[in-house]
Amino acid sequence: MGAVAAKDTLSAGIPWIFSPVLGIAVQPKWSRVYETFGEDPLVSSVMGAALIKGLQSSGKVVACMKHFIGYSNVREGLDRADNVITDWDLVNYYAPSFLAAVRAGVRTAMESYVSVNGVPVIASKKLLVDLLRHDMNFSGLLVSDYSEVDRMYSEHHLVPSVADAVRVTLQETSLDMNMSPDLQDFGDTIESLVANGLITESRLDESVRRILETKRDLGLLDSGYYDEFGHDGMDADEDVGSLADQEDALKMAQESVILLENRNGTLPIDLKKTTSVFVTGPVSDNKGFQCGGWSVFWQGSIDSTLFPNGATFKEAVQSKAAGHAQVDHLEVVDIDGKVNPQDFQRGIQLAAKSDYTLVVLGERNYAEKTGDLLGSMALPAGQLWYLEELSRLNSTKVIIVLVSGRPRLLEGAHDHADAVILSMLPCEQGGQALADVIFGDVNPSARLPITYPSRGTQLLPYFHRVNTRCQPYDECPVQWEFGHGLSYSKFEYSALWLNTTQVHATSGALEVGVTVTNRGTRPGKEVVLLFVAQKFRRASVPETKLLKAFKKLETLAPGASQDVTFVLTPEHWSYYEPHIIGSGFQRRAEPGEFVVSLLPSSTDSSTPPAPRALDDAERSSQTKTRGAPGGMASEVASAAMAAPSVSFYVVP
């Protein structure tokens, strides 16, 4: 994806891409959730680093990691609102994805709109010098987010003038470039500050050097650089939107479809046994809604003609069912929840006579502040009411397809539906990808990258700290867990084992293994997730669990098994010291018990069983010998999936 995006952008003469967004989406109401890789630090780190390598693979385009740092935890999910983040959370949850990006060689970075702990990031030495430059060793170009220098005066009210804003930014931080078309006197202000001795020329030299080095490495300083770009830009490049690139986009969309519910094996639809399908809902025939904001225009577009490739969901279903089943279509309800009374009666009639009713729901396009949810997180009331009315019918099987940039609450309207699918924003190829999954040409294998809440008052990431807020007398229910995702196959996990039950705090390694078997009748892919939970921790209340590793198994045939092994090292059972920002990242591990657990089979939609420690009798009865790292024999604790967790102990 990164390589294709870079190629297409460069064809328009643009060698700089403001991507990826590396904030962890811990606020599911936030309007920029769909720009992230989800709520988990590890997933954001791995995916972000991979995208950066793709974007920069040609050597002609540079990526820009953003938004450094803490933007994704805005108060109440309101874009650009201030937030409070402890140093512990900052270095252990928010920083890892950016650190991974730096280690992947990202060339540029963008700072964040927000204030963290009362200090705007644009004015923070702690964040933009101590953490970014010193601890992360980032040496690339740093650009402001849009108009953030002048907003230090106009919105943050940190300084009494724009000149003071420029001075503070250059004196206190390592900013190199101001992104603002409205601050024409930026250069004049700098000249005045230098002339009055308020900013040194050596400080300017640092930024000029980083800017020129970036341009030099991209070839922008070479004579004739722009001669290779036609005046028509992207339109002149026949390689943009090639069939090969469209096929790659389709594969990514297929791999991203998440099957959330599938009651009584309703899906996939067998066209040999189906005579009629009704397609309905506000997103059923609009590629613009499949793409969302930042597509063609800043706020996106609802004009499908602006998206020349791919198909709407209705078009893809019609193509798939041609020659097999009658496909009727009527939207009935619009994206804001307004129901057409005449269409409603007709829609109920069409649904009642159809074998399957495919209801495609979603939200209006938005980007940044315009997407703030000032009220309920639920989908528009009219959409949910229409869904409930359809679900009352006994003569049709109701399949819900959710197309949205963030979790939108269903408020129980899905309780009587036969299946639920989430595609997030799959864009042009999304209609085809969804049809491929629904009709069984693709076996779904994706997992939720974010906790899907069941109510707007309980918005916690899966790795929230153990606390009284979520005890049995005040539970924190979720609609679907982080990592949840079903398959048309049935995967069985067996023989969870560790090659040792004791490791040293700062050295050594631990092997974790499990056998995955496809007990279903269809070939399928499976994502194995490995979580680690620390039972007790003195430095900070421990998380419920944290994802430490994951692997996606390529297609397993029915009856086939695959052994999966993970290797854990001290970084997996230690944490970053939070009180030494500016002194480098330093890890510490506390001795004690840790629990390794795996998410249940992807056909199990229940919450994973709570991790438990094996007692001495269990450990003794399940001990066997395996080759440990380095050829040493070690004790092995083995557990069947009846107890899908096992403990190990860190010693000083």
Question: Describe it for me?
Answer:
The chain has 652 residues and is of the alpha/beta class. Helix 6 crosses helix 7 (162-172). It has 3 domains: 2-234, TIM Barrel (Alpha-Beta Barrel); 243-446, 3-Layer(aba) Sandwich (Rossmann fold), CATH 3.40.50; 491-651, Sandwich (Immunoglobulin-like), CATH 2.60.40. Strands 7-12-11-10-8-9 form a 6-stranded mixed sheet, sandwiched between helices. Strands 20-17-15-25-24 form a 5-stranded antiparallel sheet. Strands 16-26-23-18-19 form a 5-stranded mixed sheet. It is globular, with a radius of gyration of 26 Å. Residues 601-643 have low confidence and may be disordered. Residues 526-602 form the Fibronectin type III-like domain. Its EC number is 3.2.1.21.
Name its key features:
single chain; 652 residues; alpha/beta; TIM Barrel; Rossmann fold; Immunoglobulin-like; 3 domains; six-stranded mixed β-sheet; 26 strands; 26% helix; 21% strand
Summarize the structure.
Its EC number is 3.2.1.21. The protein is an alpha/beta fold.
CATH top level of the largest domain? Alpha Beta
Mean pLDDT: 89
What's the CATH H-level homologous superfamily of the largest domain? Glycoside hydrolase, family 3, N-terminal domain
**Radius of gyration (Å):** 26 Å
Alpha-beta classification: alpha/beta
Characterize the overall form: globular
Write the layout of secondary structure elements.
Layout: H1 2-10, E1 16-17, H2 41-55, E2 62-68, H3 87-94, H4 96-103, E3 108-111, E4 115-116, E5 119-120, H5 125-135, E6 141-143, H6 148-154, H7 162-172, H8 186-195, H9 201-218, H10 243-256, E7 258-262, E8 276-280, H11 287-291, H12 313-321, E9 326-330, H13 341-352, E10 356-362, H14 381-391, E11 397-403, E12 419-422, H15 430-438, E13 452-453, E14 478-480, E15 491-498, E16 502-504, E17 510-518, E18 524-534, E19 546-556, E20 561-568, H16 570-573, E21 575-576, E22 587-588, E23 592-598, H17 616-621, E24 623-627, E25 633-639, E26 645-651
Parallel strand pairs: 1-2, 2-3, 3-6, 8-9, 8-10, 10-11, 11-12, 16-26
Antiparallel strand pairs: 4-5, 7-12, 13-14, 15-17, 15-25, 17-20, 18-19, 18-23, 21-22, 23-26, 24-25
Helix pairs in contact: 1-2, 2-4, 6-7, 10-15, 12-15
